[in-house]
Amino acid sequence: xxxxxxxxxxxxxxxxxxxxxxxxxxxxxxxxxxxxxxxxxxxxxxxxxxxxxxxxxxxxxxxxxxxxxxxxxxxxxxxxxxxxxxxxxxxxxxxxxxxxxxxxxxxxxxxxxxxxxxxxxxxxxxxxxxxxxxxxxxxxxxxxxxxxxxxxxxxxxxxxxxxxxxxxxxxxxxxxxxxxxxxxxxxxxxxxxxxxxxxxxxxxxxxxxxxxxxxxxxxxxxxxxxxxxxxxxxxxxxxxxxxxxxxxxxxxxxxxxxxxxxxxxxxxxxxxxxxxxxxxxxxxxxxxxxxxxxxxxxxxxxxxxxxxxxxxxxxxxxxxxxxxxxxxxxxxxxxxxxxxxxxxxxxxxxxxxxxxxxxxxxxxxxxxxxxxxxxxxxxxxxxxxxxxxxxxxxxxxxxxxxxxxxxxxxxxxxxxxxxxxxxxxxxxxxxxxxxxxxxxxxxxxxxxxxxxxxxxxxxxxxxxxxxxxxxxxxxxxxxxxxxxxxxxxxxxxxxxxxxxxxxxxxxxxxxxxxxxxxxxxxxxxxxxxxxxxxxxxxxxxxxxxxxxxxxxxxxxxxxxxxxxxxxxxxxxxxx
Length: 575
Hints:
This protein is mainly beta and 575 residues long. The chain folds into 3 domains: 7-382, YVTN repeat-like/Quinoprotein amine dehydrogenase (Methylamine Dehydrogenase, Chain H); 389-490, Immunoglobulin-like, CATH 2.60.40.1110; 496-573, Immunoglobulin-like (Sandwich). It is built from 5 helices and 45 strands. It has a 6-stranded antiparallel sheet. Strand 22 (283-288) and strand 23 form a beta hairpin. The radius of gyration is 23 Å and the shape is globular.
């Protein structure tokens, strides 16, 4: 039984009004730029991303707003960003494209863009080095990992008939370098023909170990085909996508806006929620061992819809969903835990499009930013009053790329006397034009311990850990047999800023300086495929230079270990 949802009105200090609905508090604060800005354009998205690696999530709001989270509910808007203002629909997708340890972004706009982050809030526009992207208008974009390597791939979708220029086919890029010089792919319907492609999504829908591609292609006024591709990397070893035709969701005509593959019923496979616009009803497909059966829920009986944003908003151990649509309030549907959903709870914001969830205050529950047309936007803090437990996990890849896009995490716990698995997928686009917090969140209800945690990276590296404490934010590095505590990284001396490495690039020797003069237990140098080239065991404060002349030229990660903390630095070795 759900007990935490209430409706209260609270008046606080001048300038801030909190209106709680469905357990969420709408923040209205004249001093908070997140709640006061307006933007041009319609059908916009947002993303919760830690662009500065300070262990709290910051907010990107399309088309060109970036807000740094300074803690305690304080957000600072960054200026002088290269993201071009747009008058058209747009969103973004974030991941570490150049493998330097911070999140870069691609932006769907007119024109589209690719921007590399130097970790300080400075972004460099490298769009000119992306083949075919010059002045290319796109409606949506998504970063994925098509071939399970260390280099994220990406797609820009062009919606024919909805841009001022064109029409054009969409652009699909296979990236294989840290310099982000991808190959533009062809031979697919979406790359070679003109259709109303709207928002793309990468997801390993069949859990076979590679990310499949789903391109919502809503014509907006009537039904039409979406374009769903099964990735054949695992089956054939080749980088290839096959257009699906027999799956129920692929064979039906849609007016697709947002694909989400989630396990709502805890049966260890991924079900599908597809929000459609005016040309078709929103649909939910229950996965029964690979056979998809259409289900009717309260949110499938209305249209037009845009977002379906899934998360365990009440931390009770099952996934709930938020639905956005034109000119009506956002609606929250709670999962009853018995394959049914409660009737909608309305949130007081109308005319919205993109919804991004994430824990911006690090208190263990999912907060919301809802974006829309003009001034239609809202920040909601999750203030649930129940005692349900939770856990969050940040995955850090090596052979799978530092952002670990495509990682599948399964968690088993006993909740209300029932032992079952939950599944999460690390994605860079999982809401309409939007991206949720990349730290994977699990509600745990009354579970006091996590029985099992399975982490499977795109490289195939899999870690199984048992007996994990709840109500904690953990991190995991690909290949490690253990978790580390993110709380250890919140100390006054931030380990990610404690070490400096120079010269970089290097020829023969590098010097590592520790700002705090603290001692580390060990260190290692690994390449982007996870191969260890150098190791040192024993306490050190890096007083002596390190001879790197013995390793070949290339890009490496220097990892320093202190207790449960891991500090990672990028090293470029000259040839």
